[in-house]
Amino acid sequence: MTNLDAVTAWVDSYRRAWTSNDPDDVAGLFAEDAAYFPEPWATPWRGRDEIVAKWRERRDVAGTWSFTWHPLIVTDEVAMLEGETVYPDRKYSNLWVLRLDNAGQARQFTEWWMDQSQAS
To answer: How far apart are CA 15 and CA 87, in angstroms?
Structure first.
């Protein structure tokens, strides 16, 4: 069940995992059989173990980024969030599509990220 409180708690936990890169923090975000699409049409990372492994391969160093967000749509089934991630040399616009289970873990998560430096 998705609602704004659950989405906010999940994003807070995501930021904590993004900062720590701790396998337990990352694992806690996702249902055992979750699908994580690191890009909309990419092959998803399937299952908690693969998600944790792939996350750690691509991890960011704590303190090298900032992230702000706000909800666009939150229904019982899906949430869409708009965000902005800023690194020292890049800025990204983000669109996240999130489906939570009743335990507040992601069943499916899709990231859309657009490099603002590529804008004309």
So the answer is: 14
pLDDT tens per residue across span 81-112: 999 999 999 999 999 999 999 999 999 999 99
Entry pTM: 0.93
pLDDT of 43-81, one tens digit each? 999 999 999 999 999 999 889 999 999 999 999 999 999
The CATH number of the domain covering residues in 4-118: 3.10.450.50
Give ∠ CA 57-109-95 in degrees, rounded to 5. 95
Provide the token pair at 105. 């873990």
First to last CA, the chain: 40
Distance from C-alpha of 63 to C-alpha of 92, rounded to nearest angstrom: 16
